[in-house]
Amino acid sequence: MISKESTALYKKRARELVAQMTLTEKISQMMNKAPEIKRLGIKSYNWWNEALHGVARAGIATVFPQAIALAATFDTELVYRIGDVVSTEGRAKYNESQRVGDYNIYKGLTFWSPNINIFRDPRWGRGHETYGEDPFLTSKMGVSYIKGLQGNDTRHLKAAACIKHFIAHSGPEGIRHGFNATVSKKDFYETYLPAFAACIKEANVEAVMGAYNRVNGEICCASQKLIYELLRNKLGFDGHFVSDCGAIHDIFSAHRAAADLSEAAAMAVKAGCDLNCGSVYTNLLLAIEKGIIDEKAIDECVERLITTRIKLGILGNDTTVFDKIPYHVNDCKEHAELSLLAAKKCITLLKNDGLLPLNKKKIKTIAVIGPNANSEAVLKGNYCGEASRYYTVLDGLYEYLGDEVRIIYAPGCSLFKDRLEPCGEPYDGEPEAISAAYYADLVILCVGLDPTIEGEAGDAFNADVSGDKPDLELPGVQNHLISVIGSMKKPTVVISFSGSAVNLSNAADNSNALIQAWYPGAQGGKALAGMLFGDFSPAGRLPVTFYKSADDLPDFCDYSMEGRTYRYFTGEVLYPFGYGLSYTSFDYGTPSIDKSQIRAGDSVVCSIDVANTGSYDSDEVVQLYLRDLVTSVRSPIHQLKGFKRVLIKRGETRTVEFTISPDDMMLVLDDGSNIIEKGRFRVYIGGCQPDSNTKYVEFDVI
Q: How many domains is the chain built from?
């Protein structure tokens, strides 16, 4: 983290530099494509760059598992390491780009990542960009990734992270540009804000991106209440604020809150939106002429932007310890190995009747079937780079098995169309898949979604729902294939690829084992092959609830948390948040606490013994949930307040310790304020969400 002394010096330098600019020059620096000001030693710079799970859209780079998959690891140390590698590759690319004079988009050091919106509804197409549905998990993952990206140098940022999209933004995609999210104060402060607050206070994130939508009538990129009062004054944010791309234009064209673009630009700048992704800020000259904004407001924005560039050491003759990171570290072997490790850690086993792990000595022929069996798209996710090598499931199995086991491959069906060939008949791929299964000892059936059918508006093909999902079902042609193959009663493993919860009931009914593989990165197929044959025990956990049907959920446009996520959903689910199986078994002791009574403001230390009683060394994700037993207002059923992923060898017992802080005990009231109520709290510690068999301990706040 940059020292306070260095930050103060950089702000002073920025003020001095901005004071030398003309008004036109200042405005030119407030859009993502900022031109050169040669006389001041300011090079051309494009602020727009992406690094959601690897350096994106800038050529070859290490492609790590998608953000939702990283959340499934429940491993903050791993996420930190990935952030560090991503910024290393970002610096390597930046240094080379500077050498060859490439100042274009996606070549800078200001990464518009991570996405820390809460995945409140599984229909949202962009949910796989997030760390899931829980504010606590999202906070921990976001803080870790930002710290990795920004580095720990006291003089300069390694890269500048940006948390998005501020705030209460999670679909529907089709109406995001003019939508008004109606959010109660309780939900706002209890669910939507905590991750932003944590990333500002704990990781000192350098940038915040505003959302397209309004929140309770406040336009997110033009609200003094949201940006100045909340973000800067209350949360202490000290970096720069950037609009989502096109969001300033939306103030005029979608929200209808401005008479013209000059008024829209003035509204955003006066609210504290420093950088316009777009070109609407060219209208600030007209706004000055009309007297609806003064130059001082522009100065403040440009000073913050220049300060960020000085922190990065990319102005004038500044030098940093990162300038010598060589180009060849990009996409190197060590980084691929980390991507492979992440892919292994994100794999989530949902069902296993004993078929897994497989023994290749007992298998002569495997049928690999399904539209995602040989798909690179399901490895990538969205906002991704290009890997120099991809391992699909088919690739991974070929490499793992060599000539020892015969593999018969058959796509079986399209991802969503009812036929494989344009001139074919419906279900034209199924006969080949049936034959492959008939002659095999075992079937590995790869189904699910990919980023072309769940994603951002304009990116995904499904224009009718703008990237969102209309429901939670697998495409009908895939469910048909699952049923047909399942009816053959062959030993079957189903691998589901998706970035969100889908209804896997049919897959579970027609398989011996069911795996949620997410979008696991370039090394995904290699990781899955190793997991299938027992090279390691899976330990991924669900960062979202898998519901049975979208009919169980409130309306997509309803931003109330009532009836949403594990914290407030009271119905029966398919697979709960925090769920995941292992190849071994764990025995949990009874949790203990260091004190049974505390005063408000004190912490509680909890510990538990966890024994590996099975036959595999394995990671275990130990989870702590807290429940307020005497709350005076609506509160979560229980909520995650601690997790640790620990390796426990077979026959070993480890003691895992947690500290419950005063913040963890805070109750958010209906007016948005928070208190620690006197009364009793229950602490559950286990390998999943609490159920009737989970052991617990209680303490009182007196």
A: 3
DSSP result, 221-243 = TS-HIIIIIIIIIIT---SEEEE
Pairing mode, if any, of strands 406-410 and 240-243?
unpaired
Q: Is residue 334 part of a domain?
A: no
**Structure tokens of 533?**
């044959």
Residue 515 CA to residue 99 CA, distance in Å, equals 45
169, 171, 231, 251, 561 from 179: Cα distances, Å: 10, 9, 21, 11, 18
Measured CA to CA, the distance from residue 259 to residue 373 in angstroms comes to: 53
Q: DSSP character for 176?
A: T
Q: Are residues 368 and 401 in the same domain?
A: yes
Q: Which two tokens stand for residue 422?
A: 């344009």
696-701 and 679-686 as β-strands: parallel, antiparallel, unpaired?
Answer: antiparallel
* pLDDT for 460 beyond 70: no
Phi, psi of 604, deg, nearest 5: -125, 130
Residue 322 and residue 306: Cα distance in Å, rounded? 19
Q: Percentage helix, strand, coil, to 5, in the chain?
A: 35, 20, 50
Q: Are residues 464 and 504 in the same domain?
A: yes
Alpha helix segments (H runs only) across 151-238 = 185-187, 194-201, 224
Query: Residue holding tokens 């932007």?
Result: 305
Residue 597: CB atoms within 10 Å: 10
Judged by DSSP in three states, 678 sits in coil
Q: Judge contact between 112 and 616, C-beta under 8 A.
A: no
Do residues 444 and 391 both lie within one domain? yes
Residue from 145, 25, 10 nearest 86 by CA = 145
Q: Which structural domain, as residue segments, surrounds residue 497?
A: 347-568
Strand pairing class (207-210; 214-215): unpaired
CATH number of the domain bearing residue 537: 3.40.50.1700
The model's confidence at residue 334, banded by pLDDT at 50, 70 and 90, is: very high
Structure tokens at 392: 């699909």
Task: Supply the angle between the helices 295-312 and 261-271 in degrees, to the nearest 10.
Answer: 60
Residues paired with 401 in a beta bridge? none
- Per-residue pLDDT of 406-440, as tens digits, reads 999 999 999 999 999 999 999 999 999 999 999 99
* 46 CB-side CA count, 13 A: 15
As a whole number of angstroms, the distance between CA 225 and CA 571 comes to 37
Mean pLDDT across 115-126: 98
Among 75, 121, 129, 454, the active-site one is 454
CATH number of the domain encompassing residue 10: 3.20.20.300
246 and 317 in a single domain? The answer is yes
| 578 in any annotated domain | no
> 81 Cβ partners below 8 Å, 6+ apart?
148, 338
CB 667 within 8 A of CB 686: no
C-alpha closest to that of 43 among 99, 5, 115, 82: 99
Contact 640, 545 (CB under 8 A): no
Q: Which one of 75, 173, 244, 677 is the catalytic residue? A: 244
User: Are 468 and 173 spatial neighbours (Cβ–Cβ below 8 Å)?
Assistant: yes
pLDDT of residue 343: 99
C-alpha 398: how far from its chain's center? 31
Question: What are the E-state strand segments in 502-579?
Answer: 513-516
The answer to whether position 338 is within a domain reads: no
pLDDT in tens, 56-106: 999 999 999 999 999 999 999 999 999 999 999 999 999 999 999 999 999
From 370, 378, 391, select the one nearest 437 (Cα to Cα).
370
Q: Are residues 428 and 494 in the same domain?
A: yes
Q: Confirm whether 562 is a catalytic residue.
A: no
Which pLDDT does position 618 carry in this prediction?
98
HSE, side-chain direction, 13 A CA sphere, residue 299: 13
Which tens digit of pLDDT belongs to each residue from 4-61? 999 999 999 999 999 999 999 999 999 999 999 999 999 999 999 999 999 999 999 9
